[in-house]
Each structure stands twice: as C-alpha cells, then as structure tokens.
Amino acid sequence: MAAFAEGVPCWADVLLSDLAAGRRFYGELFGWTFEQIVTDYGSYTRALLGGKDVAGLVPKPDGRMPTVWNIYFAARDAAATAVRIREAGGRVITPPVWIDEFCVMATAADPGGAVFGIWQAGSHTGFARRGAPGSYGWTEVHTRQPRAVDAFYRAVFGYGMGPMEPSAEGAPAEVVLWTPRGEPPDPRHAIGGRVVMGEEYPAVLPAHFLTYFVVADCDQTLRTVHRLGGRVLKTAEDTPYGRFAVLVDNQGAAFAVIDNSTVG
C-alpha cells in the first residue's frame, strides 16, 4: 500500500497497562485479531481486521503515563516536520527515531497542549483498512486556543481550513475542517478537524485528539461497551456525518465511534 499524503492521519495506537484486557475489549468490540511483534524498542501488538492492519496496542513502559489513544500524521520527512513543529510554536516531545525498518516515529504537542504523533513510513505505511466498520474513521483536536492551533497546523502540514458552520464575525469557528495541501477546503476532502473546547468541557480536561472508529450500529456498540466494562462519556447523537458517541474503554482510554450508514 502506498504511503499516505503529508499530514493525513495514517495510524493510531492505544497505550495500555493491561494488554490482555485490551485485546479482549477491542477484539470483541471491533472484531479485531492480534499479532505481537518485537522491535528494538520493545513489544508492539498489531490489531488486524480481516488480516489488515487497523491499529496498535502498546504496553505502558511507566504506569504514570496516560492511558490514551494516539493519532499519527504522515510525514515524508519526520526530521523536517519536527523542525516546522518547533518553528510554529509546538514542542517535540520525542525526537524522530527509526523503529526497526517499520517507520520513523516522533511525538509532539501543539501550542494548545494536544499531543500527536508523526509517522514517516518505512515497511509499515499505516492503516491498511479504514472507513469500514471496525476501522479508523476520523480524528479531531479539541483545544481552548483555536487561533494559535489553526495557525500551527496550517504551518506544519499546510492544511486548507474551512468552518463547518458560519461563526460570529471576528470569532473563530467552533469546528474547522482540515484538508490536505492542494485539496479543496470542503467536507468531501476533509481528513480531520479542530473543535473549540467551551464551557461544557471540564476545566481539568486538557487539550486532546479524539479518534473515531467506524461501527455498523452506534447504539449496539454502546451496549457492548457497557457490557465489556467501558463507559459512555457522550451518548449517541445524530449529525450530518452520522450517529456518533464518545466512549471510554475498560482501562480509561477515550475514543469515539460513528455509524455513517445513517447519512442520507
């Protein structure tokens, strides 16, 4: 499979304390199977759907680290991307490093504090399946600093940006859609977005990326999550893009699901 275009979300993995519990939870929820690989940097569990790569499960090297889903953006040159991140006011947390022959990875934070990954493809180009039930569907950054964050992602990845809905004059849009460099800034070409964190968000909740997985039935997925020991953070809601909900797995990692079969 060809590498993803610059700035396109190309991989997601979850940092967990208990990998066996994670395999049981996501295996039943999404129908994933798993394959463990060992690299020079430790073990890594590939999640597969129909034999195709859809995500990863990573053991926490330190129990103090957050239990969280991480999203990675494609980069032709991870080192050059790290330079742009610093120049645009972001912070490089983990510098680019080769993970065997699989990829070059780096971790960074935008000016609002949301953490994301960079992925320069090697033998592993990223998602081999997406947009279908049980696979990745969407990502968006939730931030309290929309102006700084919009400027940052425009500088780092060259995103085109357009508001999902009109906003008050002079105010940043509540939701902005991102499109890759050179593509029309419209919903059909969008690959992610930015959401303003308003008063409805708990004050202690930091800026973050929310990763969505496609499901065939949103409401049934909520029932399955509850049965597996997870929780519902935001109950199912219909939108022009599908019926979605925000959930937490049985170890505390937040993610969203969306049933886009309800559109149209």
UniProtKB/TrEMBL annotation:
Hydrolase among keywords: yes
Pfam families: Glyoxalase, Glyoxalase_6
Domain VOC: 8-121, 135-260
Alphabetical keyword list: Hydrolase
Superkingdom to which the source organism belongs: Bacteria
PROSITE patterns (alphabetical): VOC
Gene Ontology molecular function terms on file: hydrolase activity
Membrane-spanning intervals of the chain: none
CDD domains per UniProt: SgaA_N_like (cd07247)
The protein's name: Hydrolase
Provenance organism: Streptomyces autolyticus
